[in-house]
């Protein structure tokens, strides 16, 4: 049975804000204490050359529970349990060879922009969220209003409450029943997606990933960063004044707005294409190599390549859709979608580059010098990706001229 997550904004009152802040501080305390205990156990096992002393989730959790202070009894015990469980998962990801980008667990700071905690005893009733109440607490627990009702029906596994700036969000993991695999008796339509810097081309048209609103927000971020940098230069030792903190809060709030716009665009587009097409074809882009150019870094970071692919793959798995990832060496930009002619460096006109070919120097136009076909460059790539997913015939040999 799959687990689906619904992230929504919550509106706690003043008392519950205090409770949530205390639980976030307690979660950070448990994580840091658990990480310290984990490292101490590992160092002891290395020093004594005894594998039985190596740390595990159960050993670290029992150690922290046994050494609980009196003030910890007033807070939810589930926060400690989930913090150590996430620490165990972080170590597993770090040693997993299939996850080369997983980082070594680090100590958390109260100055981190994102503060959160997780519990597995929360309940949802309609548009209200109820946290588990410890017996020895001194706070008055009330229901927390949610922005909307829970979309999924099933058993609630965990609830993670996150604070970003002055806003609170809840990510609710729900164990839902597996939807039956749909039968496509009419036709197997294929959706091709060509990812570009600033926009996405697909069968249904073009999606702008860098809207005017995003551009204005990035300009505001640029101004705030310059002002913060000026304050650091003027007073490098004691620059954390009230004005500095206010400006830092404005910067974080602007980043939140950009992130919210990007999430909205990603989820709407991925939902639409997964709903309309049973087969979806994407490119396997080497983004890390593309970032080598200094003039392309910011545009690539704002183009959401990896986040969009992850969202499509997740939604396709839920809806039993098929996602085809085109090979990284597939010439979607160089190949003619009508005749299959592939441009190379030695062919007439050369390869298609950011400046077009060597004859017309038009970036947005693809001209096939074999059959005379003229088409938009990105639309040609979309048609090639559709042909790839449908079963591409052998490519023709390049004709020298």
Total tally of structural domains: 2
Q: State the low-pLDDT regions, or none.
A: 394-401
Amount of beta strand = 15-25%
- DSSP, total strands: 14
State the helicity in percent bands. Answer: 40-55%
Q: Can you tell me the overall shape?
A: globular
Span of the ends, CA to CA: 59 Å
Over all CA atoms, what is the radius of gyration? 26 Å
Helix/sheet category: alpha+beta
Strands side by side in the biggest sheet: 2-6-7-1-5-4-3
- The protein's oligomeric status is single chain
Largest sheet: 7 strands, antiparallel
Put simply, the count of helices is: 9
The ordered string of helix (H) and strand (E) elements is EHHHEEEEEEEEEHHEHHHEEEH
- Average pLDDT score: 87
Which terms summarize this structure?
401 residues, disordered C terminus, 2 domains, globular, 5-stranded mixed β-sheet, alpha+beta
